[in-house]
Structures are given as structure tokens and as C-alpha cells.
Specification:
The protein is mainly beta. The chain is built from 4 helices and 20 strands.
Length: 427
């Protein structure tokens, strides 16, 4: 019997979610159903000698030309189908990489009426794991910066479970307690190539999210000139992946989360031009309210990925192909502060690395750090703007080894951004 766990399976799940959302919008004429629209664009001034990664280049920047860029138009619908069942769909339009209109998230969430201090929830569809403390705004945007951290940039590029997630919240010592515990676990498909872009392009910092049907360009294989193509949400071996985590929260003043992710992909599996990458990582996140109205956010990730070198897009392997294990890690620390009622200043420092310890000498596919400084202002309820400076310093052993390009690169970007948002009841 043929499997349904192919690339068409996400489309089927998405169609089911959208159909449920349509029923919700037609059956409930209250503000419990909401359509949210966001549009943003900006002027970018970049300093780099490399071409953008979205066109198969070596740059870590999304934009490498001085021009009006940073365009995104997105819509988010969420609404109640029944008293305990809700639907949520996010679609966006971008004009780079495999641009156009596509979906980034589509989910159904069931939250039964609690009969104790335990609040449970089950959601199914295509969604982000609840790891990011940075990207908590509509459309998985950040309210702090315009460019996401290296960790959450990669999450937006290659991590999108298509499956089911269970979670449980419990307030300790009664309903009025400030202490809350949460546990969550998920089983999913469709993340088998995760790690591919991280090796070939390296870490990056930007705000582009891969959509469910995206095809992304990557740098050519060594000694070739044709860019590679990545389909990030593909199932190659029909083995479910998993993630799970626990979280402690104290009111709005402190939060600590630990989680583990494992896509359980077979690196010898192949489908439609994509190889499996067995990728797993541990993730730690901390958020604390500090004196002087400062907020501190820290996220740290460390993991491994196993894959086949010299594995070709036609499903064959060259004689020199090897089964290798690489390690990756990244950490960021961000301080943020509101200035008055409608302004915010945020500064973030990232470190990142991707290496092969078993290689002789040790191979650093990518290592470096980045600084981000962002000022944002909500001029009105619907209009906002801001300016961001981003500096990325990195070194990649692959560049001089195979591409006649210097290993050390220093890239910077200044971005002047404008945004418009509109929320209205769905009719």
C-alpha cells in the first residue's frame, strides 16, 4: 500500500485546516474570529562582498544590495469552531527565493474545559515548536528586532513540524499561584532535510520564514556551478520525529524552558531530490525581568547532524561519499527595554558554530558572532517603524577549500523599516 507521507501530505492537512477555518468564519459572527493583516517594507544598506544566500550565494545576509527591500505581506486568521476547538492559519507573500503566496502555519487546537488545575491542549497541523522566546508576535515575528537571532532564523528556515503536539499547564499551590509548570511533547513528519541549509549556507540572521512549499537555493556543490535546491519540509524515510520539553514560569517575571528535538531521519534515505539528515538538539531558554525595566532573553542550542557527503540529487552517491557526524551550537543574549509607551530599544549578541570534530584537521564549516541593535516605535495603532544595525563576523573553512573565497567574512547591514497592521473580525 502506498504511503501518504509524501510532500502532498502537508497540503492535505493544510486543506483540512483551512476548510475548518472557513466553517468557523461562517458559523461564528463574533470577534472570536479575527483576521489580521500585516505589511512591511524597508530600505536596506548592506556592506558585503558576497551574493545573497537566497540566490545561491555565500552571504549570510538576506539582502546584499542597497535598495528598498525587506518586503512581507501576511495574513493570520484565528477563530473558534466550537467552545473548545480553534483554527489558526498564517499565509504570507515575499518577493525573494521561491517568492509568491504560501502558508507558513496551519493548525487546529483543541483545549478541553479543565476539571482540575491541569489545562491540556492538543494541536495538529503545521506549526512551530514552542521554543522561541523571541518570535512571539503575530505571524511568528519578533517584537524586539527585525532580524531574528541565529537560532530562531534557523528555526524559521528548516524546523516546522507537521504532526500533533500535546501540552499540559498546571498552576502550583492553587489558581492564584504565580508559579506555573508546563510540559509538551510532539510527534511529527516532514522535517527530514533539517540541517542541510545549516551546513551548506551556515548560520544566518534574518526574518524570512520558509513556507510549506518553498524550494530554496543553496551554494553549488564543490567544483560545480549550479546552485543546489532544498525542499525543507520533506519526508524521506516515513519515520516520525519528536520533540518534548518542560517549562517553569513565575508570573511575568521569569521563565525557564528545556527541550529536546530529534527528527529521527535516516541519513541514507532519499526522496525527490532530498536526502535525510539525522538532526537532533538540546535547547535551553531563559527570560527574566530585571531592574530598571530591562528584559533579558537567553536561548542556547547544541546538537548534532549525521549525513552523507557526496550524495547527489539523483539519489546516487559518489565513491568518495562518507557517513559523517557534525556538531552545531548557538547562543544569544538579548537586553530589551521599553522607552515610554510606544518605543523599544533592543541589543543582542549571537555566537554560532558548525564543526566536524572527527576531521583531521578539525573542520569548521561555520563559526562566528553577530551584534544587533534595534530601535522601534509604534507611531499609531496601525503604523510602526524603526531602524536596525546588524554586524556578522564569521569564518568558513569550506570557502577557501572549495570555492576560492576567503574564509573570514565581515558583513553589515542597516535597515530602515516601516510596517502597517490591521485587525478586524472575520465575516
Amino acid at each position: 500500500m502506498g504511503t501518504i507521507l509524501t510532500r502532498s501530505w502537508p497540503a492535505a492537512a493544510l486543506a483540512a485546516t483551512c476548510a475548518a477555518a472557513s466553517v468557523s468564519a461562517q458559523s461564528d459572527r463574533s470577534d472570536r474570529n479575527e483576521l489580521y493583516f500585516g505589511a512591511s517594507a524597508g530600505y536596506v544598506a548592506a556592506s558585503t562582498d558576497l551574493n545573497t544566500w537566497t540566490e545561491g550565494g555565500f552571504s549570510k545576509l538576506r539582502y546584499t544590495e542597497d535598495d528598498f527591500e525587506a518586503f512581507r505581506l501576511f495574513g493570520e486568521y484565528h477563530g473558534r469552531i466550537t467552545p473548545t476547538l480553534r483554527a489558526r492559519v498564517v499565509a504570507d507573500y515575499v518577493d525573494d527565493a521561491s517568492g509568491g503566496i504560501d502558508f507558513t502555519e496551519a493548525e487546529l487546537a483543541w483545549r478541553p474545559i479543565p476539571k482540575s488545575r491541569n489545562q491540556q491542549q492538543v494541536r495538529i497541523g503545521a506549526f512551530y515548536p514552542p521554543f522561541s522566546l523571541e518570535n512571539g508576535d503575530r505571524g511568528w515575528q519578533s517584537p524586539f528586532t527585525y532580524s531574528s537571532s541565529a537560532i530562531n532564523t534557523w528555526m524559521g528556515e528548516e524546523i516546522r513540524p507537521i504532526g500533533a503536539e500535546w501540552s499540559l499547564r498546571r498552576r502550583l499551590d492553587g489558581h492564584r499561584s504565580n508559579h506555573e509548570l508546563r510540559a509538551f511533547a510532539s510527534g511529527f513528519y516532514g522535517n527530514d532535510p533539517a540541517g542541510t541549509l545549516l551546513f551548506w549556507r551556515g548560520w544566518s540572521l534574518h526574518d524570512r520564514q520558509s513556507r510549506l512549499n518553498d524550494e530554496l537555493l543553496m551554494i553549488p556543490r564543490p567544483f560545480t556551478t549550479q546552485p543546489q535546491t532544498l525542499v525543507p519540509f520533506m519526508e524521506t524515510d516515513h519515520r516520525p520525529g519528536m520533540y518534548a520539553g518542560v517549562e517553569w514560569r513565575y508570573a511575568r517575571r521569569a521563565l525557564v524552558q528545556f527541550a529536546r528535538y530529534d527528527n529521527r531521519a535516516d541519513p541514507f534515505s532519499f526522496r525527490d531530490g532530498q536526502w535525510g539528515w539525522g538532526t537532533d538538539f538540546d535547547h535551553l531558554a531563559v527570560q527574566v525581568s530585571l531592574p530598571a525595566e530591562l528584559g533579558l532573553i537567553v536561548q542556547s542550542m547544541a546538537g548534532t547532524t549525521e549525513w552523507l557527503t557526496a550524495a547527489l540529487p539523483d539519489g546516487t552517491r559518489m565513491p568518495i561519499s562518507e557517513h559523517v557526524h557534525d556538531e552545531f551550537e548557538s547562543t544569544f543574549v538579548m537586553l530589551t527595554r521599553k522607552l515610554g509607551e510606544n518605543q523599544r530599544l533592543s541589543v543582542r549578541y549571537d555566537t554560532f558554530a558548525f564543526e566536524r570534530p572527527a576531521a583531521v584537521p578539525e573542520l569548521y564549516s561555520d563559526e562566528g558572532n553577530a551584534w544587533t541593535l534595534t530601535y522601534r516605535i509604534d507611531a499609531t495603532e496601525r503604523f510602526s517603524g524603526g531602524i536596525e544595525w546588524l554586524q556578522i563576523d564569521s569564518s568558513r573553512d569550506l570557502l577557501p577549500m572549495f570555492y576560492a573565497t576567503p574564509a573570514a567574512q565581515s558583513e553589515s547591514q542597516v535597515r530602515l523599516q516601516f510596517s502597517y497592521r490591521l485587525a478586524a473580525p472575520a465575516r
